[in-house]
Fold:
Amino acid sequence: MAKQHDRKTLIIHDDTAWRNGAAVALEQRDLACAVTGEWHAGTIANATPDTAVVVLQIRTCDPQSATSAIATLRDTLPDRAIIAIVPARKALIMRSVFRAGVWDCLEEPVNITELCDIVAKAINRRSVRHGASTSAHANPGAGADALPEHSAFLDALGTLRSLCRRHGQPLSIMMFDLDRFRDCNERYSPAFGDRVLRWFASTLKGACRRSDIVARYQGDRFIAALPDSRASDATRLALRCAQTMRTDALTVADRPYEITVSIGIAESTAGFIEAEHQLIKRARIALDHAKRQGGGRNVTWTDLLDAQPSRRDLERLTIDGVSHWMERLRQHLRSTYVESTRALVAAVEAKDPHTRAHSLTVAGYAEGIGKRMQLPARLIETLRVAALLHDVGKIGLPDAILTKPGPLTDAEFDIVKRHPETALEILGHVSFLTDERPLILHHHEHYDGTGYPVGLVGDRIPIGARILATADALDTMFSPRSYKGPYTIDRVRAELTAGAGRQFDPAVADATLRWLSESPDDFRLTAALGNA
Structure:
């Protein structure tokens, strides 16, 4: 049994058997905890100085009461990560607790293994320790202004987007740039410049909710991720921030020092198709436009799309201005094309209930394998887009083949084998999918040369196509089909091991096997997100 001062987790739940079972599971993971019964203010007394995470059961179906319970907990135990357990299929309750700033939210009935994983992440990622700031903004890699650096922000953003997608919520990115910041250093001193950065960091954190993630981006730029927020919500936050900057202005020689901020805002696209860096890039393009307009402005990605320049405006643009406009247009075209093509793929997949959301799930697997293999971010993004579109060639397949409940004949399979080449015909005219097309064409090649459509062998198959082939097979194995049930993890491991060097690239199979052994729940979550 853990010592009193070693208790990292406090469970507040009215089901004795459940909370005791959860406590045993947490103890086995070295996440020792205290347990208590039904929620009331007095139950907080069970917390110890070492308590990092509070698991709180929300029994009420009243959003206001749920928010009040979390507010009471936060006031009494500040800077603890809160994991809320809410009644099933109560979207308003879930939304209210996220807005109140919980670390994560689980619906009843709760999977104990999933709970343990989330508690471990809350402890490890937030560096919870007695006497240290442990809000959502105090992540590893924090600088002198108590904000995490960009690398830590990206790691947290991936988790946050998964949570938002799981609960059908939007997410917005805001990027901030202090106008004329160089004057702070040149007119006064670098020390004053540092003071300005700390002041703005404090102002921004004060304007954001606890559930938002705020970080340094680069230089005098900051970035924030807002879960369950649309661009209009982000715009209101920008107004609050600007108001605070005016009312709580810095002073120099007892006089207010006026400083303004430019802000770019991008809302996540439908279905979260784009990768994190693409979403951030859209916010940066919006910010750059705000700066070119003179600063002190809020510009959303939608504003840019709604304000396309006229022919006369284009004639007046400088070369630099034309370059910025083309970059914006290219980004929009790419996003729109991928979204539209993905919709076509989804329509094909919807014809067979066994393949619904197949491409989304494959994209999740492929991205995970790519990260395990430490591929460059750009290649992982290419891999993700290719996975989302890899079955677009099936648009040309007859419904009788797509929805056939039993095995295909040789003639029917010959027709199916044409779909990678059909995909190339569909996507061949799109210049911004140059890197994705080879992956889509060769995603059915086998490492030993027995695949199709060309029969490439080994390293002659693009690495992205080798990963995509494994991810595609993973979803087939884990999912039910008309001719089989879902495979167990043990059977999937056996299939990957047997197929290494034949169907699968040995290095890709090895990375996947390591992922399966270390984080088996990731595969269940990826499948759940794909079907969300």
Q: What stands out?
A: Residues 1-5, 125-144, 528-532 have pLDDT under 50 and may be disordered. The radius of gyration is 26 Å.
